[in-house]
Design a protein that fits this description.
elongated, 3-stranded antiparallel sheet, 19 strands, 16% strand, 437 residues, Creatine Amidinohydrolase, Chain A, domain 1, alpha+beta, single chain
Length: 437
C-alpha cells in the first residue's frame, strides 16, 4: 500500500463508522510564530494528515458519506507572488489531482461552502473547544442551516468529537505505518549509537543534541520532540531541555530523543557514563532500572493490561531500592505507601505513533486498564532519579544520578517486537561501544 492508498483507506474506514447521515469537519494546524514575523517549520495536525497526507496550513477537510463529493478540501489558492516568498502551493487542482479530493475550493469560500455540507445531516463530527476561531466558523455554518428550517432544511442535531472514532483507529498501526515507524526507530537507534561513540568529557550537552539532529536530518527525519540531554544533576529533571551544560568526567548522561520520519515517531532513552565507564554506584542503580525495563518488555503480549507493565516496574525497582538501602521496609508496604515515587514519579510507558504521546484510550469500556492488542505500539521506560529533593535521605554516592531506559515495543499476535533494540542497553555493551571509538 502506498501513502495515498493509506490515506484513502483511512477516510473510508472513518466514514463507514460515521454512517451516511453524518459529516465531519477538520481544520489544519495553524502556523506558529517563533519570533515576530518568523515562523516555526510547519507541521500538520496528525489527525488531518492521517486522513489526507496534505501538509499545508489554512486548509479544511470535509468528509460527507453519501454526498456527491464525500471528500472535500478547502485550500490556499495558487499565488505566484506568495509562492516566490514562501514556497509552492498545491491549490485546488493539486488537491484533487495529487491528494484525491473529489472537490476542492479556495479556503476563503469556507463560509459559503460549509453550510451546504451540513444541511440535512443528523450528525456533525467536529472537535469543539480546541480553537475559538474554528468553533465560530462551524457555529456560523450551523446557524446558517438552522435559518433554513422553514424551507424544510434540517441542521445536525447530534454533535460528536471525531477523536472517539479516529483515535481508536490511530491506536492500531497498519503495515504502512509500521514501515515508517521501523525506519524512524532505525534512524534513531543509529543516532543514539553514534552519540555513545562520539561523546567525551569536556563537550557540552548541545554537542550531543547536535550529533543526534545531524543524524536525523541526514536521513530525511526531524526531531520528534525537543531532545532531553541531561548530564549529571540535569538527568534527574524529567523534561530538561536547556541542553547547555558541560559534560563532566564521572557523570552520567541521560538522552531522551527520537526521530520523526514521515509523520511517525520513535522515542528512545539511554543513560550512559560520559567517560565510558560506569562507577560502582552508577552500575548498581543502572542494573535496577535495566532489570525492570527488561522484565517489562518481556511481558508485553496480547491480553496484558497496560498498567500491568507499570506495576511490574514498580515491584522490581522497589526491591532494588531496598537492596541498595535507598528504601527500608517491606516491598508491598512501601508500594502501598507510594514510597518509591520519590525516585520514580512517572508511568512506565505511553502509546507511540503519529504523535510521540500518541492517541488512544488507556481504559476500556468498564473503566479498567486496557488490554494490549496486536498493532498497538507502546514505550517501556522505567527510571530512577536521585534529585536534590533526596540529598538528605540517601547515600552521597547516589546523589544526582538520573537513569532512564526506554524502548518502543510493538504488540504482535504472538508477543512483541522491540523496534529500538539496536541501541545497546546492557552495561558491558555500552562500555564496549564507547571505548571502541
Amino acid at each position: 500500500m502506498n501513502a495515498q492508498e493509506f490515506y484513502k483507506n483511512n477516510r473510508r474506514r472513518l466514514m463507514e463508522q460515521m454512517g451516511p447521515d453524518a459529516v465531519a469537519v477538520f481544520f489544519a494546524a495553524p502556523e506558529c510564530t517563533y519570533s515576530h514575523d518568523v515562523h516555526y517549520v510547519y507541521r500538520q495536525h496528525s489527525d488531518f494528515y492521517y486522513l489526507t497526507g496534505f501538509n499545508e496550513p489554512n486548509s479544511v477537510l470535509i468528509l460527507a458519506p453519501g454526498h456527491d463529493h464525500p471528500y472535500t478540501l478547502l485550500v490556499m489558492p495558487r499565488d505566484l507572488e506568495k509562492e516566490i516568498w514562501n514556497g509552492f502551493r498545491y491549490g485546488t487542482d493539486g488537491a484533487k489531482q495529487d491528494f484525491g479530493a473529489s472537490a476542492a475550493y479556495p479556503i476563503d469560500q469556507l463560509r459559503e461552502i460549509l453550510p451546504g455540507y451540513l444541511a440535512d445531516r443528523q450528525h456533525l463530527y467536529f472537535a469543539f473547544g480546541k480553537s475559538a476561531e474554528h468553533d465560530q466558523q462551524v457555529f456560523a455554518a450551523l446557524n446558517s442551516v438552522r435559518g433554513q428550517i422553514r424551507k424544510g432544511v434540517r441542521a445536525p442535531k447530534h454533535l460528536h468529537d471525531p477523536a472517539i472514532l479516529l483515535h481508536e483507529m490511530r491506536l492500531f498501526k497498519q503495515p504502512y505505518e509500521l514501515e515508517q515507524m521501523r525506519r524512524a526507530a532505525e534512524i534513531s537507534a543509529e543516532a543514539h549509537s553514534a552519540l555513545m561513540r562520539q561523546i567525551k568529557p569536556g563537550m557540552y550537552e548541545y554537542h550531543a543534541e547536535a550529533i543526534l539532529e545531524h543524524h536525523f536530518r541526514a536521513n530525511n527525519a526531524r526531531m520528534g520532540y525537543p531532545a532531553i540531554v541531561g548530564a549529571g544533576l540535569n538527568g534527574t529533571i524529567l523534561h530538561y531541555i536547556q541542553n547547555n551544560a558541560e559534560l563532566r568526567d564521572g557523570d552520567l548522561l541521560l538522552v531522551d530523543s527520537g526521530a520523526e520520519y514521515h509523520y511517525y515517531n520513535a522515542d528512545i532513552t539511554r543513560t550512559f557514563p560520559i567517560n565510558g565507564r560506569f562507577s560502582a554506584p552508577q552500575r548498581a542503580l543502572y542494573e535496577v532500572v535495566l532489570a525492570a525495563q527488561k522484565a517489562c518488555v518481556d511481558m508485553i503480549k496480547p491480553g496484558i493490561r497496560f498498567t500491568d507493565v507499570h506495576h511490574k516496574a514498580v515491584e522490581i525497582m522497589t526491591e532494588g531500592l531496598i537492596e541498595l538501602k535507598l528504601l527500608s521496609g517491606q516491598r508491598d508496604d512501601l508500594i502501598a505507601q507510594g514510597a518509591y515515587q520519590k525516585f520514580f514519579m512517572h508511568k512506565t510507558g505511553h502509546w507511540l505513533g503519529g504523535d510521540v504521546h500518541d492517541m488512544g484510550d488507556y481504559l476500556d469500556a468498564e473503566g479498567l486498564s486496557r488490554k494490549l492488542e496486536p498493532g498497538m505500539v507502546t514505550t517501556v521506560e522505567p527510571g530512577l532519579y536521585v534529585g536534590p529533593h533526596l540529598s538528605a535521605e540517601v547515600d552521597r554516592a547516589y546523589h544526582h544520578l538520573g537513569i532512564r531506559i526506554e524502548d518502543d515495543i510493538l504488540v504482535t499476535e504472538s508477543g512483541h517486537e522491540n523496534l529500538t533494540a539496536a541501541v545497546p542497553r546492557e552495561i558491558d555493551a555500552i562500555e564496549a561501544l564507547m571505548q571502541a571509538a
